Amino acid sequence: MKKLLLAGVAMFAFTDGAGARDITIAQSSDLRSANPGVNRDGNTDGVILHIVEGLVGYNNSGEVKPLLARSFNMSADGLTYTFKLRTDVKFHNGKALTAEDVVWNWTRYLKPETKWSCLSDFAQGGAAHVTGVKAADASTVTITLEKPSAVFLGLMSRPECGYTGMISPDSVAADGSFVTPIGTGPFQWDEWKKGEYIHLKKFSDYVSPENDGKPDGMVGSKRPLADGVKFMIIPDASTVKAGLESGVLDTAEISPDLIPEFKSSDKTQLIVSRNNGKNLFYIQTRDKVLSNPGVRRAMAMALDLDELVAAASNGTGEANGSMVSQDSVYFNDTQKTRLPYDVEAAKKELAAAGYKGEPISIIANKRGNVPSFPAAIMAQAMMQQAGLNVQIEVLDYATQVDRRRSGNYQVISQSVAPRLDPALMYAFYVGTKDKNASLMWDDPKAVELMRAAYVELDQEKRQKIFDEFHELMLKEMPGIFLYDMVDVWGATKKLKGMPVWQSNARLWEVSVEN
C-alpha cells in the first residue's frame, strides 16, 4: 500500500503543473520512438496517432476516407491515385502543407535507411509497390503503383506504418537524422521524460477534416478539447487502478475482472469499446489428429459460442465466427453464419472422422487483458461433452507466440490486434505454411481468394470474395473465431468523450471537467 501511495504522489507531481485541463492517461510501456512508423509498438502507435496524419485514414466501419487530402481518385487502370490536398492544413511549426511536403515524406519513407516498418508493403514485391510520387501542382499529388492494389489506401492508414503520417521537413536534421515529430495532428510534441511520461500539448491552429461534428475513426471531428495529454508510464495494474480511483489518472485500460467494480463505483466510470481485433482458437491443420476437417468442425459444433463469449468476455463481447469484424462495411448476413451448436452432430462428425479419443492440447496464457485462459477453460468443458479429449497447457505469452510462429501446437487460444481491411486480416492467417509456419490456413482456394481480395477494387465484387471465403472457412474450420476484441477502460467521472478506438488511446473530442 505504501508503494501505491508513493506512486500516486509521484503521478500527482507530474500532472500538477501540466495545465488544469490536461488529460492524464496511463499506458503500460514507454514510447519506443517518436519517429512515425519506425521502431514502433502498440503504445507508441497510440501516441503518434495524436501527432501525425496521413493523406487518408480509416473511419469506424473500416472504409478509407480523405484526411489531409480533401479528395482522391483512382485512374481507370487502377495504377494512379490523385490526391487533392486540403488548403487549411498547417504543420505544428505554422508552415502550410504542400504537395512538395508529401513528395518529401514519401521519398523519405521509401528509403531503406529510414527503416520504415511498412517499407516492404510499398517496395518492389510488396502488396502496393509505389513506383512514383509527384507533385502535379502545389496542392495535387499523384502516386503511381506497379499494379492495381485494393489495399493500397488501407495499408497507408495502418498504425504499424505510423499512419504514413506527414511530418514537416524541419523534423529532420541536415544530415537526415530524425529530430522531433512536427506533424499536423490535433496535439503536438512537447516533452518526453523517458521511463516516466510523454506530454503533448494542444495544437491551437488545428482544423478537423470535413465531418458531421462527431468523431469517426481517424477522419471525423478531431477537435483537441484538452490543453494537453500526458501519457504516464505505469506498468503495474494495481497502481493504475489506484490512480483512477484517486483521480490522479483520468483514463486507462483496465483488467476485465474489474468491470463490476468500475461499473458500480461512484468515483469512476467503465468504458467498453469493440474493436476489429479477434479472439480465436488457432488450429494446426497439419497435426495428425486435427488434419481431418471433421474433427475441427466437431470442435466448433461442441461450443455454445454465445455462452462461451459471455463468460470469457465478462459480458462485454458478442459472438462472431467470421474473420470480418461486426463493425466492418463488409459484415453481412453471410458473415453472420456459423456452425450450429449441436453436441450430437459433433459426436457424429467425430465418429465419421475416425476420432478415437486422442488428446488435443489447447495452449493458453493468463494475461489479464485477454480471454486466452478463460476461453480455453470454457471450451475444454464444452468439447469434453462431445467426447473430445481436450487438455490445457498454460504458457507465458512470449513462449506461446514462439510456439505459434514455429507451428508447434495443436490449438492456441489467442487474440490478434485490429486490422481494418478484411484482406489484411486474412493475411495474418492465410498462406503457405512451408514459407511461414505461423500461418494458420494454407488451403489453395483460401490463398487464391485472399490474393483476389488484395487486387479487386470493386466493393461488391470484394464482398463476394469475402463471402465465398467465409463459406469455405465454415467447411474447413482451420480455426474457431470467437468474438471481436473488446477494449475495457476505466475513467474518472469527470472525463467526457470516448478515449479509445481500435485499442489505441484517442483523446481528441475528449475533455476533463475542472
TrEMBL record:
Keywords: Signal. Its main location: periplasm. GO terms for molecular function: peptide transmembrane transporter activity. The keyword Signal applies. InterPro entries: Peptide/Ni-bd (IPR030678), SBP_5 (IPR039424), SBP_5_dom (IPR000914). Residues 63-429 form the Solute-binding protein family domain. Pfam families: SBP_bac_5. The keyword Signal applies. One of its GO terms (biological process) is peptide transport. Transmembrane segments: none annotated. It is found in: Periplasm. It comes from the Bacteria. One of its GO terms (cellular component) is outer membrane-bounded periplasmic space. PANTHER family: D,D-DIPEPTIDE-BINDING PERIPLASMIC PROTEIN DDPA-RELATED, PERIPLASMIC BINDING COMPONENT OF ABC TRANSPORTER. Belongs to the bacterial solute-binding protein 5 family. This is Peptide/nickel transport system substrate-binding protein. It comes from Rhizobium soli.
